[in-house]
Each structure stands twice: as C-alpha cells, then as structure tokens.
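User: Can you recover a sequence for this backbone? Please restate the input before giving your answer.

Assistant: Of course. Working from this structure:
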C-alpha cells in the first residue's frame, strides 16, 4: 500500500502516540487553520559568514576574501557582492551575526543546532530527537488531522546526523528526494489517479480490518486505534487528489517558477512554500547536491573546493531561491504564521588556508593543485530569519574585527531552538518527553527565545 513512504512508520511509535493524552483539536489554543509553521533551509557543511552576511573588508587579505561589499536596503547593513537579490529585500528579514555553538564536527554541530545535544563529540546517531520530530510528536497528540497532507515533510531533509532518536520512526518526515526541477520528477505514494488501484487498496484495507476483529477483543487499551488513525492518513495520502496537487509544481505559473530559479534549489523552495500553504506545519529542505560544487555540500575545505570559486558557483541559485521564498511569504500573507530560517551547523574559518585539491570538478582544481579553503568554525556564524511576525530589517549581534568570535548578543544553539519552539507555541523550558528509559527529558535544557526574533 505504499505505507513505507508515509514516514517509515513503526508500530511502537504509533502505539505510543495513541497512549499519549490527546488535546481537543487544538494545539496550544490555536485552531488548525491558524497553526504556526516553520520552513528551515539547511546549508549542510556550513556557510562562510565572512563571504556572505558578515563581511570584514578591513581585516586583511589573509581573512577577508576577494569579494567586495554592497549596501542593502537596510541603512548601514552590508553583505558581500554574492547576495544582491537578498540585499535588495533585506528589510524583509533579520540577520543574526552572533550565532555560536561548541562542536567542530559536522555530526556534533548538526546535533547541537537541531536537537540541542551539548556534546562536542561526533556520534553515529543522535541521542536526542531533533526539533522537527519533537514538533511532529507534540502536535500529533492533538488528534487526527483533517488535512490529508503530512504534518512534517522533508524535501531532501538534513537527516544524516539527526532524526527521531527515542521518539521512533513514526515521527520522522514524509521524505521527498530527487530534483523537482526535472520534468520527470514525481513523488511516489501520493494521489493515485487510477480508480481500479484505489479500489484494490480499499479492498485490502477492509480485509485487514476484518482480520483484526479477534485481536481487538483483547485490545483493552484501545492501542490498535493508533494503527487505524495512521493507516487512514496514509490511505488519504495515497488516494486524495489534493495531496498530489500540493506537490505539483506545474500548478504554479511560469513567472513564479522562473523567479525562484529553474534549478533544484529554486524548485525545492517553491515546493516548500506550496506545501506550507497547503497545510504542512514543519518543512525542512537541504541545499546540497551538484549546485554546491564537486563535493555537493558547503564544506569548503581547500581539499574539497576552491572556497571562493565554490561560493561564486552556488551564489546565484542560492541568492535567487532564498530571496524568492522570503518575498513570496510576505506577498501571500503568510508572514505572521510562517517562520523561515536559513542556517547551517557552523561558519567557516576567518583565516584562509591553502591545501592541495583532492580532485578536479566544479569549483575545484585538479588533484594536487594548491587552492584556498576555509575550515569548520563554530565560534561565530550567521543565519537569517524571516516571517514569523518578527520585526525585520535588523541585525542581531556582532563578531570581532576578523569574524573570529561572537562578541555582542551571543546566541547559542539552545537559544536557536527555543526561538523556533516559541514560534510554534511550544514552551521549550517546561516541555518534557519520556526517553527510552521512561525518564522525562527536556526537549532542550538550555537557552531562551531570542527576544528580537519573538513575533
């Protein structure tokens, strides 16, 4: 029945969901039509803050890079020349320049930013569930969804180092991979149009329900009802044409598709807006793949990429897609309900390093060629925030003259998460979820919402 496509559901996760106390058709006092939502745009590998949102033109040639600075629509705020489209709409988002976390590796850095795990050691799998899974878990307890779309969707989501941990796979995203810009792109397990296939699935479902009759006589806790609930959602995803339409980018006019960019990143972000507008509440998408350069991510060590060639290589697609998404959120009246966050796990070293390339390709010279790069840097980096009812056209915090350390309004990974939870109506400081051992565990045990980003 294609149920595997519906978040790889596990029966234990479904039963835990049914056993939890339900709230009557509301989340945090808000009707379903007014539920807040988040789009997180993830830069896997970490974006160089100095070469984008926090330029240091006076820091010396060992640090500043080759890019000139440009004015933005916000007086006194400058970006590098790589971001002219975002500079033109800088009044529609806020730049946080003083982000800091304490892990230098991709796994630990990602876990700090997305789940609040304070451990600086790289681990093969997460100890704590990420904020996306937590939100899915908490909001799923409000009872069956009337919207046929999943609550949490990942368009190439950042799952390499993150996931549901002790919450179980039932709360993982409905994951969509592939390039939505390709004419052959399609999403499996949604919106079947073949009526005979729909009837066959209905017959199989009815047969399964009949076979369950004896089991239900012994189901004193009513836990098998959870399986019914999620099977019904999966059936709806398969058979409701509304679900197919939500993922169908051909429903958008050509000008809108062109505005986002006719490439994988542009169409990912267009689909993100489209799904959020259709009722998805948590949407994550990673900007990776061929548009990044040879190693297909933002990890611009000299051994991987010529860092400045890589930034030039991806700049147009990145700048165009992100600026289009932010503009669209405001133009379509979604800016109070929907928060857009663009970030990676850390920044890149302010001091440029030089090493031999390990291979030729986009944004990388032939193997053995000495080229510039920037390494991992968690002590200072930038992210941008739009929508969410926040006051925009602002800069939060600052780094030192070389961009090496956050020195003003320093914000931690816990603050980052608490701010997202605040927008979603979740009290991060007082929300506990039982772990594998049944021990109530805070969803994040440090950090507070960033006041300037509280809508």
């Amino acid at each position: 029945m294609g149920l595997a496509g519906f978040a790889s559901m596990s029966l234990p996760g479904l039963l835990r969901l049914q056993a939890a106390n339900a709230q009557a058709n509301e989340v945090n006092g808000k009707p379903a039509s007014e539920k807040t939502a988040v789009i997180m745009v993830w830069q896997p590998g970490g974006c160089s803050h100095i070469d984008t949102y926090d330029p240091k033109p006076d820091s010396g040639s060992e640090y500043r890079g080759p890019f000139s600075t440009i004015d933005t629509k916000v007086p006194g705020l400058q970006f590098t020349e790589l971001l002219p489209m975002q500079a033109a709409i800088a009044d529609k988002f806020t730049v946080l320049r003083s982000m800091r976390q304490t892990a230098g590796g991709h796994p630990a850095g990602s876990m700090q930013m997305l789940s609040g795990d304070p451990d600086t050691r790289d681990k093969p799998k997460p100890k704590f569930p990420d904020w996306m899974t937590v939100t899915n878990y908490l909001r799923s307890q409000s009872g069956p969804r009337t919207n046929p779309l999943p609550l949490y969707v990942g368009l190439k989501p950042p799952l390499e180092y993150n996931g549901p941990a002790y919450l179980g796979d039932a709360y993982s995203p409905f994951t969509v991979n592939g390039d939505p810009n390709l004419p052959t792109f399609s999403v499996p397990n949604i919106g079947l149009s073949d009526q005979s296939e729909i009837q066959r699935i209905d017959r199989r479902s009815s047969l399964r329900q009949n076979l369950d009759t004896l089991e239900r006589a012994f189901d004193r806790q009513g836990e098998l009802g959870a399986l019914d609930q999620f099977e019904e959602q999966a059936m709806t995803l398969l058979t409701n044409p509304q679900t197919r339409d939500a993922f169908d980018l051909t429903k958008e006019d050509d000008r809108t598709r062109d505005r986002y960019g006719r490439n994988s990143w542009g169409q990912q972000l267009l689909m993100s807006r489209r799904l959020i507008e259709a009722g998805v509440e948590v949407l994550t998408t990673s900007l990776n793949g061929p548009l990044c350069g040879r190693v297909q991510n933002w990890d611009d060590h000299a051994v991987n990429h010529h860092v400045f060639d890589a930034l030039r290589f991806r700049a147009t697609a990145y700048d165009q897609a992100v600026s289009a998404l932010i503009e669209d959120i405001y133009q379509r009246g979604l800016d109070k309900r929907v928060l857009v966050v663009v970030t990676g796990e850390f920044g890149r070293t302010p001091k440029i390093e030089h090493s031999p390339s390990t291979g030729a390709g986009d944004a990388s010279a032939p193997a053995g060629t000495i080229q510039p790069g920037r390494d991992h840097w968690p002590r200072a980096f930038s992210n941008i925030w739009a929508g969410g009812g926040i006051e925009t056209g602002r800069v939060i915090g600052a780094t030192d003259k070389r961009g090496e350390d956050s020195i003003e309004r320093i914000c931690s990974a816990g603050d980052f998460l608490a701010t997202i939870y605040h927008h979603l109506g979740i009290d991060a400081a007082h929300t506990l979820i039982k772990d594998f051992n049944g021990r109530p565990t805070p969803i994040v045990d440090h950090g507070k919402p960033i006041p300037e980003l509280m809508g």
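That completes the design. Residues 307-331 form the longest helix (25 residues).
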